[in-house]
Amino acid sequence: MSLGSVPLDGARGWDDDVSSEMLARGLARAVSRELLSTKVTSRVVPFAFGAAGMTTTTTASTTLCVLTHEKLVDSRPIAERLRAETPSAFDIVVGSRVEDFDDAISGAGEARDVALLWWFAPRALAEGVLTAAARAECSERVRWMHSGSAGVEHLLAIPSVKAHSSVMTNARGAFSASLGEWGVLACMYFAKRVDEMRAAQRESRWIRTTVGMIQGKEMLVVGYGDIGKHVARRAKAMGMRVSAVRRTPEKTDPRDEHVERVVGFQSLKEAVAKADYVVVALPATKETDKLIDGDVLNAMKETSVLVNVGRGSTIDEDALVDALSNKKIAGAALDVFAVEPLPSDHPFYKLENCLMSFHCADLTSDYHDLALDCFIQHAKEYVEGKPFTNVVDKELGY
Predict the structure, then answer these.
(1) How much is the mean pLDDT over the chain?
(2) DSSP of 276-298, one letter per residue?
(3) Where do runs of H (alpha helix) occur along the chain?
């Protein structure tokens, strides 16, 4: 798989029926690139990897620093799309080392505003750029930070990032469709006894056994944000009955037809006791750390299945190993883990009632394009002075 389509750091879309949108977007990109190649040069955009000059009829007012991994510097979304589709009000600098941004953060004689795009870069790069900006006494010129991933706990773990006064946005929603599909897949995997079927096939055994249905079953979505809503929409379409637990149930749209009931975290144990499938779609915050603990797992039905498409830190993994080993619940489907990569000697690997997908449930071939779509949308909002679609609450952590 090419580096242009694979993120180098864990992260968390489109809605269904997007083929016409994809075609229109593809045509727009082609036209944009053609126009780009025919303009009269008036300004060179200083890409760190030495790309050809970009032209514009608008004077850049903000320097965009794209912090990325060295293996992604020349990837197609950065080398082609970023140049063609980012508003010309941005002067773009791409780099994988702190020194690549020396001129940008010092201003190089111009007191421009600065925006930072974290594009799957090592933590040390984000920390280093802000530290360098502070030393140059120009940290206040950083007006906006955007995370190419939906999860931002890796950035907020950096004190200088969390304490900075700039607005932070993220890629919330960019990967939710794929995660919604995987959430339903996990339910069907256990209902249809796929593991037993595959084992019999490998052993050339003909077996006839009863299978279950997810139609009519109860799904509880823990964390009813964008990912949770995408799971609920697909589960509802499959005939499941869906309820949810969220931090602020009062924020649920009363017109939401996909969920029957929404309660707060304080009702979590009572809610899981009624569910056949518990799908966790929580961000990693202090409040959600090991929220799914031994008490919650013990409250689940022995026939129920736990699915995690959020963050690994939200589940007490030791308690989950115990629940799976002793058949306190029927199974678990895990896309995320507290430590990634998961050590090879971890019990999850050997548990037959545990389905693992190695934090790749949202790793579609267009992963980086979806992330860039989200950034470009926010870049246009920035230039046009419109409210950002995704604003991160740095205190809440999402």
Answers:
(1) 87
(2) SEEEE-----TTTTT-B-HHHHH
(3) 19-38, 76, 83-85, 102-106, 123-135, 153-156, 159-162, 176-191, 194-202, 226-237, 268-272, 294-299, 317-325, 367-384
CA distances from 288 to 265, 271, 304 (A): 10, 16, 21
Q: Which domains does the chain have, with CATH numbers?
A: 3-174+365-384 (3.40.50.720), 176-356 (3.40.50.720)
Task: For residues 123 and 114, give the distance between their C-alpha atoms in angstroms, rounded to a whole number.
Answer: 19
Q: What is the pLDDT of residues 255-286, one digit of tens each?
A: 999 999 999 999 999 999 999 999 999 999 99
The percent of residues in the chain predicted with pLDDT above 70, rounded, is 84
Q: With 70 as the cut, is the pLDDT of residue 56 above it? A: no
The SS3 assignment for 154 reads helix
60 phi and psi angles, rounded to 5 deg: -65, 140
Return the structure tokens found at 298: 């013990």
**For the chain, how big is the Rg over CA atoms in Å?**
23
- Going from the C-alpha of 318 to that of each of 281, 282, 292, 315, 337, the distances in angstroms are 19, 19, 11, 9, 12
In angstroms, the first-to-last Cα distance of the chain is: 30
Asked if 284 contacts 155 with a C-beta cutoff of 8 angstroms, the reply is: no
Q: What is the DSSP string of 94-115?
A: EESSGGGGHHHHH-TT---EEE
Task: Supply the residues annotated as catalytic.
Answer: 311, 340, 359
Please tell me whether residue 14 adopts helix, strand or coil conformation: coil
For residues 86 and 93, give the distance between their C-alpha atoms in angstroms, rounded to a whole number. Answer: 12
Which pTM value belongs to this model? 0.84
pLDDT in tens, 197-232: 999 999 999 999 999 999 999 999 999 999 999 999
What does the pLDDT read at residue 59? 53
Peptide bond into 341 cis (omega under 30): yes
Residues composing the chain: 398
Residue 332, token pair as written in the block: 């678990």
What is the spatial distance between Cα 376 and Cα 381, in angstroms, rounded to a whole number? Answer: 9
Residue 306 has pLDDT above 80, yes or no: yes
Round to whole Å and give the CA distance between 12 and 314: 15
Beta bridge partners of 167: 144
Asked whether residue 53 carries a pLDDT value surpassing 60, the answer given is no
Q: Is residue 373 a contact partner of residue 135, using CB atoms and an 8 Å limit?
A: no
